[in-house]
Each structure stands twice: as C-alpha cells, then as structure tokens.
DNA sequence: CGACCATTTGATATGGATCAAGCGATGTGG
DNA sequence: CCACATCGCTTGATCCATATCAAATGGTCG
C-alpha cells in the first residue's frame, strides 16, 4: 500500500505565500504550526492496519509522515535476528525524515493508524519558498537528534533506570496525568530499551512491589511516585 | 578561555552574495564547502591545550566549532559519576551544533587542538541569506543524526561487536589505510562504547590473538582482517 | 469451552563489571 | 646514567545483572 495510490480529495494548492526571508534560526521554540498546516492541506490521509508496514528499510524515502491516530514504531532487524526499535511515534508526531535517499529503518503501525503523508519533493520545494517551513523541518530534525542522544545515555544504564526513563518519557508524551495507556507490547518496549521482555516484565513487577507504579492491566501503568522514578534516571 | 577573547585577524566580511533561492533539499550529497569557506573567512582560530575544556554542559551554545588539528571529545557526566562520551571529532569535523540554547554536552580537547570558532548568530544570519549555507547546516545535522542512530544499534550489541565497529569507524575516518593512529585513550574508547576499560583491553587482545588486528603500540592498531571485523558488526 | 498469544514467574547460565595485581613506557631527580 | 615514581594499559580472579531456557498464568476471540 503506497501513498501514490491513495484516494483523497484533490490536493489544494497552498495559496501563494510571500517568500519569508526569516533566517534559518536553529534555536529554541519549536512549533510546527506551518508544517502541520501544510501537511493538512497538501498531504494524503492514509490508513494502515495494525502491524502493517508503512515503509521498509532501503526503500526510497520519498515521503514524510505525520501520525493522526494510532501509533507507529520504526525498527531495524540486526543480522543476528534481534530487532532494535528506533522510536515510537504517537498522534501529532512526525516521522520518516531521512537524509539519505533511502530509509535506514522500517516503520510499522503498532495499532490501526491514520497517517498524513506528504511528498518529500513537495515539502522540499515549499521549504525553498517559505523559510518558516524550512525552519520547522530543521527544528524537527534537531528535536529528533536530541531524543536520540538521550537514548544513548539511556542505553548505558541499568535495566531499572531504562524502564524508569521510559515510563517518564511516555508519561510526558501521552500526558494523561499519571496514568499511561501504552500502545506498545512488552516486546516492543524491550526492543526499544535493549532489554529482554522478561527483564522488562520483572522490572515493572519490582517497581510495583516498591509502590512506585501500579499496573492495573498490562497496557496501563499508573505512576505513583514520580520522584522515585526520576531519581533512578541519571 | 573563550572565543570572544581570541586574538585574530579582523573578520573579513563575506563579499555580498546574491540570495540563493535553492530549496532546502534534505537529500543526498553532503559537501560542506560553503560552510567551510565561511568558517575560514569569518571564524576565529583558537588553540586548546590537551584536556582543556572547550565548552561545558549548560553553557550557552553561542558558537559552532570546526576541528583544524588535534581532536575533541564531547561527553556528559552521569549522576553516578560515569562518563558517557557523545562523540569524537577529528580534523575537518564540525561540532557544537545544538538546538537548545545551552549545550547538552561538554567538549574537551583530547590532544592539543586548533579549532575554528564561529558565532552561531553570524552563521544564522548568513543562512537566511544564502540557502547553500542553510542546506549545509541541515545536512550536517542529518549526518550527525545518522551517526547517533548508528551508535544506538551499536550499544545493544556485544563487547566484541562494539569494539569491531569502533575500529572500522575509526579506520574510515582517519583513513590511513589499515593502520589507525588512535588519538584517544582506552578510557575514552570505553566511555564511548559503554564498556569498561578492562573489557576494551581484553577484547583488543582477543582480536589480536585471532589475528584480526595487530596492536604494535597501544595507540596504533593495524586491521589485518577487515572482513572478520565486518562480520562481527551486525 | 478451548486455542492462542501476551505476559509473568522461576531456575540457571553467562558476559561483562568489579576488584586487585602486574607490566611497560615515560619522565624526574639525584 | 640510573633508581624510582607515575600513569596508562593489560592480565587475573571473582561477582553480579541480565540473558536464556522453561513453565505457569491470564486475557481474548472464535
């Protein structure tokens, strides 16, 4: 299933916008407003069923994607068969930004997902005319870089620290207060954190025993003691 | 020691350049030619003795740096005292590109280093006028992102795989054929790979026993069997 | 109900960390 | 020029966190 085959309302030409000459600031405040609008107007809405592939490693990276509903994982299968998850993308998140011609990771829907898809070439051309689009693409990349760097710090820590960080990260992103509804399986979490599913499970159990969290159902986790989790963090 | 105190030849104003309207392509071929020229013309050359700090975590990120000679490590000290090295930068490499107002890592000279320093605001303004500068900054970021993502794949692998990958990476970057002169200590390597110094040492010894590498002196390593190293890679 | 899949729990193995000692290069002072 | 201190690296012995192997439990759907 590929974007070019999408049935959608005709692309609406973005109304001629004066070329903004704002500098390509690589600083601070990230709002992706203009980018979001652009994707709304010029993108195609696609549906991907649970576990379906959105793009595969080594396929040409011709599109940029924005999660509207559902969630997405990017991953890579290593030659020994292990799977490393590159990241999770929740509603509102943008993924598929690549700097080579081909994707270096594959992407799959974790749950049935609606995804806004826009041609890279379209966005690319637009970025040339509208500096705010360029700036937002740049900011997006910077944010992604920051996230990945944080992951590196994570991956040298203990299992408890990794799980604690993961929970705090998720709590911040899904933001339902202290109660998190996890879209992904234990295996996904394990492959994200570089642990085994058993270790993730045991660690959660242990956090539950110490009254740091509650696990009313396997996909739902309630943070009872954020401070304790933060202290584990590093 | 801070860039503003540098003694240097007066900054030469870059000759007025027509605003290039090339699009902000986020694809392919990375040459940093224009960026390099700009830094040559408008940057200040600074000297940093071995082990001196270039910038510290949480300091304002007001400059971009390019290694002319010597080499640099970026790192972060975790709350348990461990040090994680973010990256090594060799002559020709650019570092210090941040997306927050403050540095998230510290940087130190590994060996006496000459470094070209340019104000972020200068470059920023220039990027607004010259799309090729903007494009190169963007490409640079993309390359950094790629590198960091590769590190993540590395950090879930075995000690042998990590060391093998490190050697291949270094061989590609210092590029003296099969003979590598390492600028960094075993401790640096260990902190880069998320291992202990003992494990790094043992792994090198083991690779030497299997005739995969030679270690004529502790800082010099000769790759005898690249294929074997690649196979360990993943 | 029964099959299936995800998750948890239990028992054991192991890779790399930790603790400790030895070695070799480099530099310093007598 | 040589004894000696220092520092970075290697080697050895042991320990422990997490992986691995195996089984039990629980939840979901036909």
How does this model look, in words?
The structure is a homodimer of 234-residue chains. The first copy, chain A, is globular and about 55 Å long. Chain A is 38% helix and 25% strand. In chain A, the strands form two sheets. In chain A, strands 1, 2, 3, 4, 5 and 6 form a six-stranded antiparallel beta sheet that branches. Chain A is built from seven helices and nine strands; from the N terminus they run αββββββαααβααββα. By secondary structure, chain A is of the alpha+beta class. The interface between A and B is large, with 51 and 50 residues. Chain A binds a DNA duplex (30 and 30 nucleotides) through helix 6.
Q: What does this entry show, briefly?
A:
The structure is a homodimer of 234-residue chains. The first copy, chain A, is 38% helix and 25% strand.
Shape of chain A: globular
What structural category arises from helix and sheet content of chain A?
A: alpha+beta
> How many E-type strands of chain A?
9
Q: Using CB atoms under 8 Å apart, which protein chain pair has the greatest interface?
A: A-B, 51 and 50 residues
Largest sheet of chain A: 6 strands, antiparallel
Low-confidence stretches of chain A: 1-24
Number of helical stretches of at least 4 residues of chain A:
7
Helix content of chain A: 25-40%
Helix-strand topology string of chain A: HEEEEEEHHHEHHEEH
Cα(first) to Cα(last) distance of chain A is 43 Å
Mean pLDDT of chain A: 87
Oligomer: homodimer
């Amino acid at each position: 299933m590929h974007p070019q085959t999408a049935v959608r309302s005709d692309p609406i030409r973005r109304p001629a916008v004066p070329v903004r000459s704002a500098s390509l600031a690589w600083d601070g405040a990230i709002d992706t407003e203009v980018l979001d609008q652009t994707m709304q107007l010029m993108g195609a809405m696609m549906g991907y069923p649970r576990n379906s592939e959105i793009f595969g490693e080594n396929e040409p990276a011709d599109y940029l994607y924005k999660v509207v509903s559902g969630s997405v994982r990017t991953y890579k299968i290593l030659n020994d068969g292990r799977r490393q998850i590159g990241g999770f993308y929740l509603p509102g998140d943008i993924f598929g930004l690549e700097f080579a011609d081909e994707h270096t990771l594959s992407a799959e829907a974790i749950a049935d997902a609606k995804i806004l898809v826009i041609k890279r070439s379209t966005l690319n051309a637009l970025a040339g005319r509208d500096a705010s689009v360029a700036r937002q693409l740049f900011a997006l990349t910077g944010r992604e870089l920051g996230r990945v760097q944080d992951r590196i710090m994570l991956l040298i820590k203990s299992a408890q620290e990794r799980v604690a960080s993961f929970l705090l990260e998720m709590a911040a992103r899904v933001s339902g207060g202290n109660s998190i509804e996890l879209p992904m399986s234990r295996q996904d979490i394990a492959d994200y954190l570089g642990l085994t599913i058993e270790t993730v499970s045991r660690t959660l159990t242990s956090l539950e025993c110490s009254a740091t969290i509650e696990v009313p159902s396997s996909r739902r986790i309630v943070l009872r003691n954020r401070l304790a989790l933060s202290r584990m963090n590093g």
